[in-house]
Structures are given as structure tokens and as C-alpha cells.
């Protein structure tokens, strides 16, 4: 009889632990428990190429996503076994856990997939989390990838931040294999920039390397004609009248990239004649780039009244410390 009582106590204890596991959580924790154990699911999805069946709860999905709400409550509601073929099952399961818990974990491995599914179902919390994650990668060599993602998913803040970083650090971001493989939309944004910390010759060389690489990826000869066909309107975003004359003469004029009349117009622009085909306005440089370039080019300085003055082409610039090519203040007070 005593054994029976002990067994009953053990059963009661097990029941209590199971109930605590199921009910002793936060609301999101309980919802996740219901999802994980497929309790009271009232809608199912067939997901991915293998059409794996995944259950969920209409109320929660409709609460978090206007797309799901319309799917279930629209004029032609979908009832069950809803087919989702453009997302794999693992991604969809991860997405559901996001919706149920708000515990959003984004990584470089899943960010594009989660951006896609968050945008598809207008899950704003997921999209914001992905954009914030990508903004942290802007100040790295992956800023090119962030720029491409911003274009693909219409993330204007991310586009602005990543483009600005590339404009300020072009050698770090673009002078590598990833840079030479950027999409045409990215190349257009770069060449449209009015501020860029490269000379026009550097930008032109980069554009030619990019066009060469694109031709090779299409199994085309990287001839001037093929590069022109590939560049299309991008060609006229390169400010050839500002390109170094020797580079232009030796590398561009003999390539077949430009027509004879365009070449003549560019040479005329070198000597001051207006050019209506290619822009002649120089791109501005970021402030710190200007200071660094000035310090590298001008080393003459003298101390006067406790301040240092630096001789430049535009006159004297004053600072409170000795000018150094590797260290400079963000702003120098003028006299």
C-alpha cells in the first residue's frame, strides 16, 4: 500500500512539473511551447521543395502580420495546407519563432533569408532587426554587401549609411574581389556620388576593372566595345575630362570604349572647352581626407603664439598641435 502511495506522489510530482513546464512561463514562452508541441494548431503550411508540413495558430500570425491577417480573413480566405514554395522549412520555422517570441537572433548567415521572409509577410520587427544588424557591418569591408542588400530590400537608411562609408573609404571597400563583383545598381550609385575620396582617375580605373570582370563572367572578350555595351549609361557617369591625361591617352583612347567624337570632346575639355557629354565638376572629398591629403603634401609648418601654422595653397591653416600625416584634429580653427 505504501508503494502505491509513493507511486501516486511521483505521478503527481511529474504532473506538476509538466504543468509548470507548460504553464509557468511568460506569454511568449507559453505560445512557443504550444507551437513546438503543435498543440491546438488551426492552420498548416506545406513549406519548401520537400513540402514539409508545419502547424501554427491563426490568431498569433494574424496579430503580427497584415499579410497573414488578409490571408485568413480576406475575401477569399485560405483555410489549410497553404503552400509556401519560395522559403525553406528551417527558415520558416525560425521565422515563426520570431513571430511568437520576439526573440530575434540575426546573423550574417541568415540575415538575407530573414529579410526576405520578413518583407514578404510585412513583419516589421524582423525587418528592423535585420536592418540594424546590417548597419553594424557598414563600417567593415562588408559595406559593399550591405549596399547590395539595401537595394534588394529597399532599406533607404542602410543604403545611405553604407554608401557614405564606401565614399569615405573606397580603397578599403572596393579595391578587392568583392568590389569588382558588385551589381550594376551599386556601381551606378557609386558613379553618381558627388562626394568621393578617390580621384577621378582612380574611379575610372575601378570602373574599367569592374567592366573587365563582368565581361569575363559573361564569357565575353573584355574589349572596349563589349565594356561599352555592358556599362551603357554608366559610361557617362565617369568624368573623363578630369581623368589623368596620360592614363586617358594610353589606356582609354586606344581601347575602343569611346567614339572618336567623344575622345575629341574630352581632349577639348582638357583645354577649357565646355563638354556637354561628360561632367567636368570635381567630386568633393570628405573633410578628414582633405586634411590628410594636405598634410601628406605640405610638411612646412612653424610655431607661433602657441599654435602651429601649416602652409597650404590656399594660405595658412592653424592648429593647436604639431601637424602630423598620421594624426590631425577633425576641425582646425582658422586665424
Written overview of the protein:
Residues 41-108 form the BTB domain. Pfam families: BACK (PF07707), BTB (PF00651). InterPro entries: BACK, BTB/POZ_dom, SKP1/BTB/POZ_sf. The chain is mostly helical and 335 residues long. Among the domains are: 2-40; 198-280, no CATH class; 286-335, no CATH class. The protein has 17 helices and 6 strands. The strands form 2 sheets. Strands 2-1-3 form a 3-stranded mixed sheet. Helix 6 packs antiparallel against helix 7, helix 8 packs antiparallel against helix 9 and helix 13 (200-217) packs across helix 14. It starts with a helix and ends in a 16-residue tail after the last strand.
Which helices and strands, and how do they pair?
Layout (H helix, E strand, L loop, with lengths): L1 H22 L3 H10 L6 E5 L4 E5 L1 H7 L1 H8 L8 E3 L4 H13 L9 H10 L3 H13 L6 H10 L3 H13 L1 H5 L2 H4 L3 H9 L7 H18 L6 H8 L13 H8 L7 H11 L16 H11 L3 E4 L2 E6 L2 E5 L16
Parallel strand pairs: 1-3
Antiparallel strand pairs: 1-2, 4-5, 5-6
Amino acid at each position: 500500500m505504501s508503494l502505491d502511495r509513493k507511486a501516486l506522489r511521483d505521478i503527481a510530482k511529474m504532473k506538476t512539473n509538466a504543468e509548470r513546464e507548460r504553464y509557468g512561463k511568460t506569454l511568449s514562452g507559453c505560445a512557443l511551447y504550444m507551437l513546438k508541441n503543435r498543440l491546438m494548431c488551426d492552420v498548416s503550411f506545406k513549406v519548401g521543395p520537400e513540402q514539409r508540413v508545419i502547424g501554427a495558430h491563426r490568431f498569433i500570425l494574424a496579430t503580427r502580420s497584415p499579410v497573414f491577417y488578409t490571408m485568413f480573413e480576406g475575401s477569399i480566405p485560405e483555410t489549410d495546407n497553404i503552400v509556401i514554395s519560395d522559403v525553406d522549412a528551417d527558415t520558416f520555422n525560425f521565422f515563426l519563432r520570431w513571430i511568437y517570441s520576439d526573440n530575434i537572433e540575426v546573423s550574417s548567415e541568415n540575415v538575407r533569408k530573414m529579410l526576405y521572409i520578413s518583407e514578404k509577410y510585412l513583419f516589421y520587427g524582423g525587418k528592423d532587426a535585420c536592418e540594424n544588424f546590417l548597419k553594424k557591418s557598414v563600417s567593415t569591408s562588408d559595406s559593399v554587401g550591405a549596399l547590395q542588400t539595401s537595394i534588394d530590400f529597399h532599406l533607404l537608411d542602410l543604403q545611405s549609411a553604407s554608401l557614405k562609408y564606401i565614399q569615405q573609404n573606397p580603397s578599403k571597400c572596393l579595391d578587392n574581389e568583392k568590389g569588382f563583383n558588385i551589381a550594376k545598381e551599386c556601381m551606378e550609385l557609386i558613379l553618381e556620388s558627388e562626394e568621393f575620396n578617390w580621384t577621378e582617375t582612380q574611379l575610372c580605373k575601378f570602373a574599367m576593372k569592374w567592366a573587365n570582370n563582368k565581361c569575363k563572367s559573361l564569357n565575353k572578350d573584355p574589349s572596349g566595345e563589349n565594356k561599352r555595351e555592358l556599362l551603357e549609361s554608366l559610361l557617362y557617369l565617369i568624368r573623363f575630362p578630369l581623368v589623368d591625361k596620360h592614363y586617358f591617352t594610353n589606356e582609354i583612347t586606344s581601347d575602343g570604349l569611346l567614339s572618336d567624337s567623344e575622345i575629341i570632346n574630352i581632349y577639348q575639355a582638357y583645354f577649357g572647352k565646355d563638354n556637354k557629354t561628360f561632367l567636368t565638376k570635381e567630386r568633393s572629398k570628405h573633410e578628414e581626407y582633405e586634411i590628410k591629403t594636405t598634410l601628406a603634401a605640405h610638411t612646412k609648418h612653424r610655431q607661433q603664439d602657441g599654435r602651429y601654422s601649416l602652409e597650404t595653397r590656399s594660405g595658412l591653416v592653424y592648429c593647436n598641435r604639431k601637424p602630423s600625416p598620421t594624426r590631425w584634429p577633425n576641425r582646425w580653427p582658422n586665424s
